[in-house]
């Protein structure tokens, strides 16, 4: 056995590599985003602003010429550029003269309950984080008041939103603080604003794994209470402040995922349509059903408003994928969302610079690549928005 393989040395190597990687990533981030320059949302062309608001570009132009609403920035080419804040102000203005209430501000009205959407599947890499991030951002841009929660200790959703899980959260600040068994914090203390209007974030990091370790201990001490309701109870403290909560779950069926499942009113299961993924999904579904039975046995109401499968990284030209998609649609019918999330280099490239496609400029990609990807994302997210509206009895 070489010296390298003794346990002590392996440990040292791993530790050294971990430190090296953390330092490198930190300095890379410092050069990309200097500490004083926090992340910001790009500006939108008048065409993009009109599309997201659901009005004609000419109407937006008229509002501008009449001096109504916010004053957009003017580009060197004399084009109007709207910030996400401008778009939100326009929403408020347009809603005042809307034909039907909610045409521009689609959020809750009296009697509507908070929508809590859990994005899950224990298969790693099935597109949970990408789906959750784009859903949360699109809903916020559409005028919903959104809270995104990173429940995954890997913290990819957190990093996508410009918070560094290992540096910015040294003194806590994840949902763990609000669901821990000893001295939980108020959830209001850990919610952060983001650079996108209407979008708040509860970041995650490794500390979340404490919940997985402490729950069995609390259960054996009799201190856990209804442990699976801890996320739901924490969210109840801020119920009135949001329309939709989007929870990015870790790729396993642990106590964190169970708590998210118990809090959720809607469940989105991401599926990459490949044989191995679909096979593991069968186990995921059975285990989830078993867990829900256990929770229901303790008297909890486990009914949900809806659950849907979302096809992710779908390649329409891939014949084996198409067979699996056809098979899933035949088996599960309208439980599979109509719109799939297409596989696109625009989405993965944006991810490399810790951005969603809503954050990158259209000029960063060839037009057809960008347009195809954004149309697919919008179709998915708008279909979910319709489910939300239906739950509130509006469609
Ligand atoms: N539609 C897409 N087109 C291209 N690449 C994608 C797409 N969706 C996701 N990806 C890429 O696939 C990888 C896995 O996606 P993602 O992180 O969203 O999965 P996940 O289910 O959250 O993974 P984990 O289980 O590790 O949390 C990422 O590198 C992401 O950029
Ligand atoms: Mg993820």
From TrEMBL:
CDD domains: ParAB_family. It holds the Pfam family AAA_31. Residues 115-291 form the AAA domain. InterPro entries: AAA_dom, DNA-bd_dom_put_sf, DNA_Partitioning_ATPase, P-loop_NTPase, Plasmid_partition_RepA. NCBIfam families: partition_RepA, PRK13869.1. This is Chromosome partitioning protein.
